[in-house]
């Protein structure tokens, strides 16, 4: 018997449904909802800083596809035993609807896409990254609901009343444990951690100058800390590792270190200035070609600080 206050896993039938000839996967809908939320939040924040409306779409046209590709291939190549074995169906490498889209892979692929998109749109990459930071955490929170519907991303057994119910027939259910065992709901922990991170970034932005990549650095540090803890108590199939440490933990440590380095460097380089969101040589558009109103623009620093 499960604890009366434990979290039930949804009916497996909810993981997908038919819409005419199409099979719609709930996991994909959660990812799509996250992308839409990130677009809306980032677009609003970047516009308030002086960029034209719609420019985020121009950037994400590059960032989202490359982010999805990076997410999938990072997962596959850190879980090689799940995809490469005698008799394996190699088409499963591309089955993103079954779950297995690694956040750190999406960051790497998405960063490459964002660099391309920002360059083509004439937008400063760090201005875009700072505007994206809270939206990225919201997107990740929505995406984690997909793990819930797929009955995955759970942690060590627990007797806590909010333990997650996982059916003993689930292929990820640890052997040797009795039916009715509850597990830490890591998907829920990460959702709460991410939403707390959103609040922290927004509060710090009111008190500190989190520009020039510093808001994104805060995101990297916050998410890296939370993810490293979650990976430490995760028992459903984890990533391949090195020196006995899973790849996702190494990626978390790297994210924390990268965030600290970025924060220190950008604070020394730009302690008080606020960047023009445009790259040098890309002046603000006029009212005849998708401009921003002067009243919406953020005061910029001296021209010497725009490089």
Automatic annotation (TrEMBL):
Annotated stretches, region: Disordered: 273-307
Chain's role: Catalyzes the transfer of the diacylglyceryl group from phosphatidylglycerol to the sulfhydryl group of the N-terminal cysteine of a prolipoprotein, the first step in the formation of mature lipoproteins.
Chain segments annotated as transmembrane: 24-43, 55-74, 94-118, 125-143, 182-204, 216-235, 247-265
Residues that, per the record, bind a 1,2-diacyl-sn-glycero-3-phospho-(1'-sn-glycerol): 144
Gene Ontology MF terms in the entry: phosphatidylglycerol-prolipoprotein diacylglyceryl transferase activity
UniProt-listed Pfam families: LGT (PF01790)
Gene: lgt
Topology relative to the membrane: Multi-pass membrane protein
Biological process annotations from GO: lipoprotein biosynthetic process
EC number annotated for this UniProt entry: 2.5.1.145
Protein name: Phosphatidylglycerol--prolipoprotein diacylglyceryl transferase
């Amino acid at each position: 018997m499960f604890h009366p206050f434990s979290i039930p896993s949804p009916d497996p039938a909810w993981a997908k449904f038919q819409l005419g000839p199409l099979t719609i996967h709930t996991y994909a809908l959660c990812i799509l909802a996250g992308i839409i939320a990130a677009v809306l939040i980032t677009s609003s924040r970047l516009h308030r800083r002086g960029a034209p409306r719609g420019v985020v779409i121009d950037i994400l046209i590059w960032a989202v596809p490359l982010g999805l590709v990076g997410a999938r291939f990072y997962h596959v190549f850190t879980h090689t035993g799940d995809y490469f074995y005698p008799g394996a169906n190699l088409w499963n490498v591309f089955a993103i609807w079954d779950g297995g889209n690694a956040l750190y892979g999406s960051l790497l692929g998405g960063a490459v896409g964002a660099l391309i998109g920002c360059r083509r749109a004439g937008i400063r990459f760090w201005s875009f990254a700072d505007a994206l930071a809270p939206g990225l955490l919201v997107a990740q929170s929505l995406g984690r609901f997909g793990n819930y519907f797929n009955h995955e991303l759970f942690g060590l057994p627990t007797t806590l009343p909010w333990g997650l119910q996982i059916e003993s027939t689930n292929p990820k259910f640890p052997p040797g444990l009795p039916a009715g065992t509850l597990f830490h709901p890591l998907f829920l922990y990460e959702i709460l951690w991410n939403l707390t991170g959103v609040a922290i970034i927004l509060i710090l932005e009111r008190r500190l100058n989190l520009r020039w990549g510093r808001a994104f650095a805060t995101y990297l540090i916050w998410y890296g800390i939370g993810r490293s803890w979650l990976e430490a108590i995760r028992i459903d199939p984890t990533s391949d590792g090195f020196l006995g440490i899973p790849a996702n933990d190494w990626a978390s440590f790297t994210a924390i270190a990268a965030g600290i380095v970025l924060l220190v460097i950008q604070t020394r380089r730009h302690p008080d200035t606020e960047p023009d969101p445009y790259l040098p040589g890309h002046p603000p558009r006029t009212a005849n070609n998708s401009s921003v109103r002067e009243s919406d623009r953020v005061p910029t620093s001296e021209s010497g600080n725009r490089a």
